Amino acid sequence: MSRIFITGSTDGLGLAAARSLMKEGHDIVLHARSRERASALAEISPTALGIVIGDLASATETRSIAEQVNAIGRMDAVIHNAGIYLERSRDETPDGHAKTLAVNVLAPYLLTAWITRPDRLVYLSSGMHRSGSNALDDIDWKKRPWNASQAYSESKLYIATLAATIARHWPDVFSNAVDPGWVPTKMGGVGAPDNLEMGHLTQTWLAASDAEAAKVSGGYWYHRQRREAAAEVGDAGFQDALVEKLAELTGVRLFADGR
Ligand SMILES: NC(=O)c1ccc[n+]([C@@H]2O[C@H](COP(=O)([O-])OP(=O)(O)OC[C@H]3O[C@@H](n4cnc5c(N)ncnc54)[C@H](OP(=O)(O)O)[C@@H]3O)[C@@H](O)[C@H]2O)c1
User: Fold this and answer.
1) Is the pLDDT of residue 129 over 80?
2) Contacts of 198 by beta carbon, 8 Å cutoff, 6+ apart
3) What CATH class has 3-250?
4) Where are the domains of the chain?
5) Which is an annotated Pfam family here (predicted)?
6) Which of 85, 123, 152, 220 is catalytic?
7) Atom of ligand 1 nearest to the CA of 127
8) Is the CB of residue 7 less than 8 Å from the CB of residue 80?
9) What is the rounded CA–CA span in Å between residue 40 and residue 38?
10) Contact present, 83 and 128 (Cβ < 8 Å)
């Protein structure tokens, strides 16, 4: 049985993944943005390994989340699930970043750097990453007029690219990105056409399955099938430029060789 941390497990796909993995007998560390939101976990928290609290829009709280996880012990897997979709404005965070970038990209980047390295890492991307742009000069939306859908698409391109970059740099870790499909959660909306069940079972499989097919790295997945991601995701030049930007924005370097 594995020890697995899931960000954003108070709702939607994160909560479904937590329930499913707990049913299989795994030890799950849950995450809520605040003590108030942790109340959404009342039903499953008694059988969880722990609950950590913190808002991913803040680097200070993200640091605290990592410390809370590390205090519980080393995880076998981390599912970077939490995310936000169409923000009405850039909505600057306490650290001065666009909130969409902060929650969807900077927080998983920082948690990857700060949480004791697990065996498996899973990052939630989206089919919308294909509308992302390979221009990295304004990833924090300081120059361009705000475009919520474009900001989300770019964030999902960056997170898929981060998963692939980690796979390249850390050969001892299985690092993969998942497109869960357009599914009916708070984010997806009630009319979302895709399968909610399959929407979370790829993440749980990549995080915990002993099947050889799940023990791979650098993949982009949809419904347990490997899919072709946008060309940038596997482009080493784009990967290196992106992690350089993320290091500049956060002041934290993920890779010891400076890239
Ligand atoms: N649903 C879809 O159709 C779809 C499609 C493609 C990709 N995805 C991706 O799948 C992942 C999960 O999406 P979902 O549909 O399950 O979304 P959801 O129902 O809105 O749930 C998102 C989770 O992330 C948490 N979260 C958001 N901002 C946070 C913050 N600042 N600090 C801490 N926690 C925060 C939420 O906490 P609260 O409960 O407190 O809000 C919630 O637990 C996301 O990364 C999303 O981009 C979803």
Assistant:
1) yes
2) 180, 181, 223, 224
3) alpha beta
4) 3-250
5) adh_short
6) 152
7) 6
8) yes
9) 5
10) no
